[in-house]
Amino acid sequence: MTAMIDVQGLRKEFGHFTAVNDISFSVEPGQVLGFLGPNGAGKSTTMKMLTGFLTPTAGRIHICGIDVAAKPVQAKKKIGYLPEGAPLYAEMTPASFLSFIGDVRGLKGADKKKRIEQIVEQVQLQDVWKQPIETLSKGYKRRVGLAQAILHDPEVLVLDEPTDGLDPNQKFEVRQLVQQMASDKAIIISTHILEEVDAVCNQAMIIARGRILANGTPKELLALSQFSGAYSILITSSLQSTVSASLQALPEVASIEAAPEGDELFRTTAFPAPDVKLHEVVSGLVHAHGWPALEIRRESGRLDDVFRQLTTEVGQGGAHA
Ligand SMILES: Nc1ncnc2c1ncn2[C@@H]1O[C@H](COP(=O)(O)OP(=O)(O)OP(=O)(O)O)[C@@H](O)[C@H]1O
Ligand SMILES: [Mg+2]
Predict the structure, then answer these.
(1) Cβ of 40 less than 6 Å from ligand 1
(2) Is the C or the N end of the chain the one with fewer CB within 10 Å?
(3) Using only C-alpha atoms, what is the Rg of the chain?
């Protein structure tokens, strides 16, 4: 088995409520898998089962070939986990906390000291090293949480919303850190930020109501967007109705959308009919009329569009218990 994380038929019930409903997937070394989904989708519950903090109602989890249910301690040695909200011991300092985590992880002597020094450098904790954790800013607390997750250099990393609540610079730093570590690890991160998926993930899963609705590369998910394959023309407002009518009249165009951009411009987006490529028809139309288009753009698909489309379909369909 090459997958570092292998999940088959995972299910979690809380009383009569099914939070995770028959989820299967695997993650290979070098893969960064993004968990996307609305609030209550089951992302954190899945992560808690992966890391051995919750017992599944049904299903099997293997971490580096180790069955989490049968050998939880061995499996946990392979995993670094940043739980949702990054809970920490408030009265400890980063120094005492990481020393404690080092002990828990079985690091000793010079090895432990060296590893802690590396981590402090990596997540930039020098400035607050001796300050009680409860007095740290949110960004620094998150860094301490990340530091404890990666201290033992685990093969598998599970990060539950690692950038939640951070400022843009800190988000960037955390994403960089994840990318740096990605080459030889299997990493799962959950996020509500769709651009984060593009930035750090090479695989993404959309989950809602405990089920996987889509699983693929970010590019494959983008291809599910209604904007994938669409073309838009940016043109002065006075020509908008002519452009829209001409586009709409083309047999290759299924539908159009027009929206103002600034005070004087309009963007008209043409969506292709099935199995049609719009590029030549749209540019041909613009040239034939001699329209002074400021831009003809191929839309690459939008993740938020796919997300909304998939997750609201489930919402309308009701719960699948
Ligand atoms: N211990 C529990 N007892 C009962 N219900 C629970 C428990 N833990 C989670 N749930 C429910 O399971 C569902 C999934 O929760 P989970 O925390 O996994 O969602 P999530 O996808 O992480 O959401 P968010 O994006 O808000 O973090 C929710 O409806 C939640 O209320
Ligand atoms: Mg969650």
Answers:
(1) yes
(2) N
(3) 24
Q: Which residue do the tokens 């000291």 mark? A: 113
Kindly give the number of the ligand 1 atom that is closest to the alpha carbon of 38.
25
**DSSP-assigned beta bridge partners for residue 66:** 63
> Is residue 87 helix, strand or coil?
coil
Q: Give me the helix-helix angle, 94-104 and 138-150, nearest 10°.
A: 20
Lowest average pLDDT, out of 10-14, 66-70, 130-134, 275-279, goes to 275-279
Tens of pLDDT along 173-196? 889 989 989 988 999 999 999 889
Ligand 1: which residue has its CA nearest to atom 30? 40
Domains and CATH numbers, the chain: 5-222 (3.40.50.300), 231-299 (3.30.70)
Residue 313, classed as helix, strand or coil, is helix
37 pocket-lining for ligand 1 (C-beta < 6 Å):
yes
**What is the average pLDDT across 263-277?**
92
SS3 of residue 230 by DSSP: coil
